[in-house]
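User: Show me an example of a complex going from sequences to structure tokens.

Assistant: Sure. Here are the input components:
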Amino acid sequence: MPEPTETRYAYGEALLELGSQRPEVVVLDADLYQSTRTVLFRDAFPERFIDVGISEADMVSTAAGMAATGLIPYCNSFAMFITSICYLPIRTQIAYPSLPVKLVGSSAGLTQGPDGASHQSLEDIALMRILPNMAVVSPADDVETRQATFAIADWSGPVYMRLGRYPVPRLFDEGHRFEIGKATTVRDGGDVAVFATGHTVCKALDAAELLARDRIEARVVNVSTIKPLDEAAVRQVAGEVGLLVSVEEHSIIGGLGGAVAECVSGMANTPPLLRLGVRDEFGESGLADELLEKHRLTGRLIADDIRRALSGHEHRSRKGGGYRTKVI
Amino acid sequence: MTVSPDRLAELRSKAAELRWHIVNMMGPNRVHHFGGSLSAADIVTALYFYKMRYDPHNPDWSERDRFVMSKGHSVPAQYAALAMLGVFPLEELATLKRLGSRLQGHPAMHETPGLEGCTGALGEGLSYANGIALAARIRGLSYNVYCLLGDGELQEGQVWEAAMTAATRCLSNVVAIVDRNRLKAMDETRCAKLLNPLRERWASFGWAACEINGHDMAAICDALDWADEQTRQPAVIIANTVKGKGVSFLEGQPQFHNAPLNEEQFERALGEVKAAFATTENR
């Protein structure tokens, strides 16, 4: 197995390869091309690369104009900026006419780290997910990032892809097939199901290992497309386990947990849903691992929270009997 | 190039017809953007009937010149031009902003044939026009992109981001036109942010800039021709206009930015634009 790597590196390399295959792919950046790794594309295809400077709204509107004439623009910045400062043009000029602009937000989530709350996007999934026509993709490792970089070019509408600068282990071999709109089970188990996305898939797998020592079998589902959500998969899982858990490096409001809650809300007899993530607060400066610890997003702390929820759930079961939809 | 008197007379007649369509499609007792649509009427006429390479039978022609209505609330002027050209039926104009209509209150490119983008949230259109212009360079096409902005819209910061991008990239295929009617939604633009010296400001951003009377058809056509000659930098035409131009009691009145006309006002407005059109036809 290779060393853990940041998904942005696989993206930069895949984008370079995509550029050589697809002449209609153009890349825009807002003065972060080293960080976003679009520098590789810039050096190879300078005539199809535009650094607009520090003006994200100008970048996405420009990309919309390019997309309207048949090009496939990939816009790049930190997740924080590309989903917020340019939200209005994304909404009006890209999502509304469903133009094939690909918005790629790197350094997403808490693990952006020392720069603090101003740079830590904990709302980006929610902001993008609520826009009609917008797909939201959040790959879990380098293999999936590479495949997703190609797949979103073939998706006819706009896409937001969330990447990170936190080293994650390789989870998939080359036989893995990323498909927009498909969730995949990466570990089987019948007691609890953990829906995870992006960086948190590896953390959820760590948690499942720890739980297995206590004879709790956790199924881990990689939700690498948050929109369109694989509702069939979520509903099927919900019917087979005693507890649902969502884990994300994002606010527990409106992101993966929100999407899962919406999906199961119409089902009868669904198990409780434990939403793990950042609890409606801003981030702060710190090392990535310190921040994950503080927000209880390490394997050990995720396992602890699941154990606690299971014991509470058993308590409820003894009292009332049967599952009721409950969002914890 | 100087435009011939006959051609100018024909264009003035088109502009008068376009104003008649604008008022007529809006009708009485409904809230509409009368002022900005009428101030832009001569400019839109000159673009569609004089300047742009445009085939109404093939509105998706890849080499066509593009028009981006950045001041999206004035799209009724563009709807009128497109209908007069036959891109969609004239009768459809009366469906403006009605439920189920292809003619939305602000431009919706995926709904209306002939529109090049979605605008309406002010400040975004010039960046979008730049994107279309950059695509021409990448795809080896030679069209121009015309972008109409309101002067109030220039108070949005993104316009100036786009102005810097166009100048930095030497986008000589971009022509911005400012409908300088001096009014924004509530009152005069200068009440909130001063724009002058406007021509000098654009020039300082690296644009070739000229200033004209935006209701003088000869001046508009000459300025559009002048823009063609700017081969090293983007060009901006600051067109001084009167909001509500063509309907006497709407002219210069900010309360008619987005407001209804009652039956009596509507009949009076329609009468004025009809009479003006008849005059140009009977010349």
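The lines above are the inputs; the final block is the predicted structure for all two components together. Residues 315-328 of chain A have pLDDT under 50 and may be disordered.
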